[in-house]
Structure formats: C-alpha cells, structure tokens
Amino acid sequence: MEKMTYALITFGCQMNLHDAERIRGALHARGWSECEPRYAEAVILLTCCVRESAERKLYGRLSSLKPLKEKRDTIIAVGGCLAQKEGTRLIAQAPYVDVVFGTHQYPHIADLLEQAGGGAVCSTALSGVRISGIPCSRLEEFRAWITITHGCDNFCSYCIVPYVRGSEVSRPLEDVAEEVGAHVAEGVREINLLGQNVDSYRRKEEGKSRFADLLRLLGSRYPEAWIRFTTSHPRDFDLAIVRSIAETANVCEYVHLPLQAGSDRILAAMNRGYRRAEYQVKVDELRRCVPGVSLTTDVIVGFPGESEEDFAATLEMLELCRFDGAFTFLYNPREMTAAADLPDDVDARVKQDRLRRVMEISRRLTSASLRGEVGSEQTVLVHGPSRKDPRRWSARTRNNKLVHFQRGEVNLTGVFARVEITAAGSWSLHGELKEILG
Ligand code: SAM
Ligand code: SF4
Ligand code: F3S
C-alpha cells in the first residue's frame, strides 16, 4: 500500500490524549505518517461529550474541515466519547464525515480508515476494549501515560462517561509493570497511571483493590521514575493507598480527589457513595501521613435541587480541606444520565454566581498553597521551555506545582533538577536553579 498521511486533533481529558497516543501507535505500525491537517489524507478528531460546551467545540471544528473535504477529498474520521454517544446521528448532522468510531474501536483505526471511501462507516460497538499490547507512540519522550483501568461502573448521576466508555476493566498487574518497564528502559522519567477510578483497580477481577499493591510494585521495581496517578475516587481511596503513597519513595505527593459537592444530600443525589465526614477523615489522614502532599479537587455547582444551604456546605468543605487547587464546573444535564430526569432547577444566574464564589475561594487557597512553598528547595522535572516566556523553563515539583526558572545554555527538557523557590504568583512558582540532577 502507498504511504498514507493523517492528522490527529484531540479534545477532552487525559484519557483521550492517551488514546491519541495509541491511535498514533496503531497507524504508525501500519505505515501511516503524521502531518498537518491541510496536507493529510485523513483527519481524525478525537472527541469529548462530558459537557455540552465540549460538543459545541467539536461541531465548530468539524465544519471548519468541510472545505478540506471539498477541495482534497480528505477522509474525515470522528472518534472518542461524542462519536460513541452520537453514532450515525453524527453522520446525519455532518454528512461529509466518512468514519465514526467509538471508544472501544480505536485499535482498529487503520482498518476503518482504509475502508473509507465506499460510503460512511460507523463502528461504535462497546464490545470490550483491548487495552493491552497496543503500540503507543508517546507525545513526550520523558513522560508516559499508562491506562490501568478503562471505563467506569460508578454511574455518578450527572456523568455520561460510563455510557460512552463502557464498564470498568483493569489490566493485569504484570502487564502494567511490563509496559512501565519498557517506557523506563527508553528513558521515561515520569509514569502516569490512568483510570476514571484508579482506586478500584482490579476490584472487579480479584474481589479487592490492588491499587496499593500496584504502587508498591512499580515503586520498588522502577525506583528511578516518578509515579503519578489519576483519578482517585473518594469512596475507594483508602488507608492502604494512603500508606503506599507515604511508604513508596518515588510515588509523588499529589492526589486529585474530586469532592463534587459538600452537602450530604447532594452527594447522595449524585450517587457518589460517600458522605462529607468520610471525605474529610480521608483528607486528614492523607495530610497526616504524607507531608507536603498537594490535594486538588473537582466541584460541580448548580446540581438539581442545590439550595443555598447545600452550596454553603461546599464552600465550607473547600476551606476545611484546604485544597491546593480546584477545577470548577457548572452543572450541565447530559442525556442518558439519571440526573437528566431531574429538573435543572437552579437559575442560570444563581449557578454563575455560585461558580464565581467557588472560584474566588479556590483562587485564594491556591495562592496560599503556593506561598507556602517559598523558601523551600525542591526537586523538579523540567517539562520544557515555558509557553508564555520561552526564556524560562517550565517544571513541576513532586507535588505537581508549576515552577518557572531562568534558562541557560544546557537543554534541561526531561531532566530532574533542584530548584530554590523564590516567589509565588497566582498559579505558579518562580525559582532559581541550584543543581542539575540529570
Ligand atoms: N472519573 C473522574 C471523577 O470521578 O471525578 C473524572 C470524571 S469527569 C471526566 C471530570 C469532571 O467533570 C468530573 O469530576 C465532574 O466534576 C465534571 N463533570 C462530569 N459530568 C458533568 C456534568 N454533567 N456537568 C458538570 N460537570 C460535570
Ligand atoms: Fe463519571 Fe463518576 Fe465515573 Fe468519574 S467516577 S467517570 S464522575 S461516573
Ligand atoms: Fe474524557 Fe470527555 Fe470522554 S472528559 S472520558 S473525553 S467524555
């Protein structure tokens, strides 16, 4: 077959960014090569549908590709979560789309693209995704993302993810370890374990969570690499996991633990499976056992029936847990989900005002958390030149705080270094290079 070219445009979360690495791997293995969309024979969009805004973004981008189709007969393929949700509806809405592929179909991407041309192809069966043994073409040389669980069984009442990613499956422990080993042998410095709920890793297959065991195993086998993980679920994040973070030297002191809401009534309506007091006990335990840990969260405001009192409970939890950062969202009803049947009854202006108030507190907490680092010396992993100011390096501390420091002659991308933290801004730290660790 002649050499084919593709361009890949990714929306959505880290899961999609990593699926994109797998799609690249699968296509490269079949002799495809990557180029800019305007020269590509196939343009692939990897989509998100977690909120309506994500859908709008996709349709905007899709219509901007129409001229390419008309001029060069470019193959247009749409995959990922929105493609899974819409299926043939997507083709009806955008008839110039050639291929729609769902979240379990990306290992077959080369076949699907090669079939295009004889009419639109729609492949969205949730037939069980293959997550082992698929080639991966990493976006970065020094950081690797590794899926440990795929899909989700939690069915939080607002969330569409279980419907579009399918039910949760975990990879075998040794299989994950082998992939980590291959990345580390290629010089990767940071491993990021990925799952919608990493804390339930292998619970379904083995009857109990093996996540703490996985952290310990990877920590002892690959001590030279930093290990991170996302996302944790407050119901399943337990003491064994806290201890494994505390006792495994190369597991980084950073946890993203989405709270979503601070009122027990709303947490129950969200089907989150924990109460605020339990959440707080876990946070206290984490802060006690893992000194310097940084804790971030997700918060949804304006869930159906959220009263001012419920909302006040969320604000109170933000202060009590002293989050180092919070991602905040306006509730947005999603079709298929249980909450979509509830009246979306919080007035739009009230929702906006609540969002503003949550963001105000979270900004203040983030600033305080950054100020707390000033004067310390930290090991950082350098990610590359800062996008805003290329005269500076952009790096992350073990507890995932962004640090900028002056660039010199030597290329430090992907290198560990010691940096003294000299000042704190609103979102990042400033530092001075003390030592290059290599
Ligand atoms: N599995 C992770 C978890 O349990 O938090 C991440 C799920 S989701 C991709 C990321 C965040 O989007 C959620 O934590 C939630 O705060 C937000 N989100 C999901 N559905 C939403 C909705 N319908 N409206 C507003 N925010 C939503
Ligand atoms: Fe969505 Fe809840 Fe699953 Fe996270 S745990 S992906 S919020 S259903
Ligand atoms: Fe991620 Fe969006 Fe899908 S947040 S899991 S790409 S719906």
Which structural class do the helices and strands define? alpha/beta
Could you give a short account of the major beta sheet? 6 strands, parallel
Which strand order does the major sheet show? 2-1-3-4-5-6
CATH superfamily of the largest domain: Methylthiotransferase, N-terminal domain
The distinct bound ligands, ions and cofactors come out as: S-adenosylmethionine, iron/sulfur cluster, FE3-S4 cluster
Radius of gyration: 22 Å
Helix content: 25-40%
Count of spatially separate domains: 4
Task: Give the overall shape, derived from the CA principal axes.
Answer: globular
Q: Can you tell me the CATH topology of the largest domain?
A: Rossmann fold
- The fraction of residues assigned to DSSP E strands is 15-25%
CATH class of the largest domain: Alpha Beta
CATH architecture tag of the largest domain = 3-Layer(aba) Sandwich
Poorly predicted residue ranges: none
